[in-house]
Specification:
The chain is α/β, with parallel strands linked by helices and 561 residues long. Among the domains are: 8-39 and 132-301, NADH-ubiquinone oxidoreductase 51kDa subunit (Rossmann fold), CATH 3.40.50; 387-488, no CATH class. It has 17 helices and 17 strands. It has helices at residues 12-16, 35-38, 142-151, 164-169, 192-199, 201-215, 229-240, 261-269, 289-301, 331-337, 395-399, 406-414, 418-423, 434-438, 445-497, 501-529, 539-556; strands spanning 42-44, 50-54, 64-65, 72-73, 78-81, 90-91, 96-105, 113-121, 178-183, 219-225, 247-252, 284-288, 307-313, 321-326, 345-350, 357-359, 372-377. Strands 1-14-13-17-15-16 form a 6-stranded mixed beta sheet. A hairpin with a 7-residue loop joins strand 13 and strand 14. Helix 6 crosses helix 7 (229-240) and helix 6 (201-215) packs across helix 9 (289-301). The longest helix has 53 residues, at 445-497. It is elongated. The structure holds iron/sulfur cluster (SF4) (2 copies). Residues 390-396, 406-407, 410, 439-441, 443 line the site of one iron/sulfur cluster (SF4).
Length: 561
């Protein structure tokens, strides 16, 4: 941003320079562990007997369930509708019968259970409505294309799961300078994007063309890490078939985490996304290659997001590979497709060893953001050791790609100083795990950051709820006061409107009432002054009363001079 708060466009020279790349702070060069699995072609996973579809598979609000147990559903049918702007629908990944809508374990760092739709598949894999293919998307307005992407339930498939339509709609005031297609699969073990680019480069490229049509960026870069020469060659060949002068394939060095959105933008342009800001604020939008392919299927073939490519790997899996699985497939089923577990398997993770997290059961389903199922042995990934106190070595700071102070963040997150942790830009942490990887004290730093973020979100949610309750209470009081004032005004108006005989009648009535009240008052006074009945008095009482009356009559006599 410049001093006037305007969006600063990306430097043209930087984009047009073919060789100029930049470095972000920190990062690590990690062993890849991809050799075997990267060469395995994509395999279609068989339909599982049951699909488990969580209502929330993305950042934002959970979807609203549209089906009940007993309902028959078709492949591609919307079974849960979005509940807000940052919310996405869920579709049946295959045909069958809904047998339950209930809480089930879902892939989450806190081993959550959450509402899911359970479908017993019928094996027919029957599509509901006929596709309405749309090969010439250029005839449609951009808003309609965005709506179609939303209806297809597409979220970022690189891991974050941000609704794609919302990201595309977030335009910078001066438009988009650069569209980055992220093919940088930087985390060890994972190679699903690599295989996608090798085997379906045309689909990815068509998706890129649609995104270009929607965003109208001045430049477009497909970024691929330098350990994927086959994918790079496939994308270059596909790109040559389209006459797009502003589209380039760029190879970037293998440094973890270059695949992070902010880090990749820094590498390609030298520019920093502002803290707490979005890439669109500096005129850049980043989309994953898998997301581009999903956009192509949604727009051209009218297919919602019901499957994705994942890598199933680790020494705990007998035949690691890359699978195209239906969303909702239990992990166990995907591992069985790859020959099942080896006898030494120790733990199961969703994601890679750096950003992934352990799951406690293999009944959890593949969701839209699952890019890898990693079954590891003890030898391959020893269990976490007991953490020791921080020795202030500063190694975590040296490797942090977000240029944060992980040690300070740790102290404040640990001691519950959440405001201070935010002052240290906690929310700029991308949870890459570099700091924990190098920490000689084996402190599980990322867990502290995740916990602190979750705590802040919970507090904000509670504050929002209590603010809403307070505002409701204040509105109620204001409504009651308004009603009271309106009532008084109505009475005053009515009185004003009663003039002439009616008003005189009211006055006469009032006079009668007041006269009656006056007579009662006088009668009472007279009764107080009247001589008392002395039949039941003692002689002493009788004497006192006579004395009082004599004194009163003496007092009432006119004075003689
Ligand atoms: S790397 Fe670990 S021990 Fe060293 S300063 Fe960071 S938190 Fe402390
Ligand atoms: S996990 Fe966060 S604090 Fe640690 S290195 Fe990555 S970005 Fe920095």
């Amino acid at each position: 941003m410049n001093t006037e708060g305007e969006m600063t466009p990306v430097n043209e020279d930087i984009i047009n320079s073919r060789d100029q790349l930049y470095r972000f702070h920190g990062g690590l060069v990690l062993p890849g562990h991809r050799e075997v699995v990267a060469s395995r072609p994509l395999q279609a996973a068989v339909i599982p007997p049951q699909l488990v579809l969580p209502l929330k598979q993305h950042i934002g609000e959970a979807a609203e369930c549209l089906v009940s147990p007993g309902d028959a559903v078709f492949k591609g049918q919307m079974i849960a509708a979005p509940r807000g702007t940052i919310s996405m629908p869920v579709h049946a990944s295959s045909s069958g019968i809904v047998i339950a809508v209930e809480d089930r374990p879902v892939p989450h760092p806190s081993s959550l259970i959450a509402p899911c739709i359970i479908i017993e598949t019928d094996g027919k894999d029957e599509w509901g409505e006929a596709d309405t293919p749309l090969p010439d998307y250029r005839q449609l307005p951009v808003e309609r294309l965005l709506q179609r992407i939303r209806e297809a339930g597409i979220v970022g498939l690189g891991g974050a799961g941000f609704p794609t339509q919302a990201k595309l709609a977030h335009r910078a005031p001066k438009g988009i300078d650069l569209l980055v297609i992220n093919g940088v699969e930087c985390e060890p073990y994972i190679c699903c994007d690599n295989r996608l680019m090798q085997e379906r480069a045309d689909e990815v490229l068509e998706g890129v063309r649609i995104l270009q049509h929607i965003l109208q960026p001045r430049h477009c870069i497909i970024a691929i890490e330098d350990h994927m020469p086959e994918a790079e060659a496939a994308m270059r060949a596909a790109a040559e078939t389209v006459a797009a002068g502003n589209l380039r394939v760029v190879r970037v060095p293998e440094i973890y985490p270059t695949g992070g959105e902010r880090q990749l933008i820094k590498v390609l342009t030298g520019r920093e996304v502002p803290s707490q800001g979005f890439p669109a604020d500096i005129g850049v939008i980043c989309q994953n290659v898998g997301t581009a392919a999903a956009v192509y299927r949604a727009i051209v073939h009218d297919q919602p997001l019901i499957s994705r490519i994942i890598t199933v790997t680790g020494a705990g899996v007998r035949e690691p590979g890359n699978l195209e699985v239906l969303i909702g497939t239990p992990f166990r089923h995907a591992v069985e497709t790859c020959g099942g577990y080896s006898s030494e398997v120790d733990r199961l993770l969703m994601g890679g060893p750096m950003m992934g997290f352990a799951v406690t059961t293999d009944e959890v389903p593949v969701i839209k953001t699952t890019n890898c199922i990693l079954a590891v042995t003890r030898e391959e990934m020893p269990p976490p050791v007991h953490a020791r106190p921080c020795i202030r070595c500063g190694k975590c700071t040296a490797v942090c790609p977000a240029d944060l102070l992980p040690q300070q963040l740790y102290w404040h997150a640990r001691s519950g100083n959440l405001d201070t942790a935010q002052d240290y830009n906690l929310f700029d942490c991308i949870e890459c795990g570099c700091c924990a990887y190098v920490c000689p004290s084996h402190i599980p730093l990322v867990q502290y950051y995740r916990h602190a973020k979750a705590e802040i979100w919970t507090q904000e949610k509670q504050k929002k709820a209590s603010d809403i309750a307070r505002r409701r209470h204040e509105a109620r009081l204001a409504r009651l006061e308004r009603a009271r004032l309106e009532r008084s005004e109505r009475l005053a108006e009515r009185k004003k409107s009663l003039s002439g005989p009616a008003e005189q009648a009211i006055d006469a009535k009032q006079a009668i009432i007041e006269g009656a009240l006056e007579r009662v008052r006088k009668k009472k006074e007279a009764a107080d002054l009247a001589p008392k009945n002395m039949d039941n008095l003692t002689p002493e009482q009788e004497r006192m009363i006579r004395e009082i009356e004599a004194r009163r009559s003496h007092k009432d006599r006119p004075t003689e001079h």
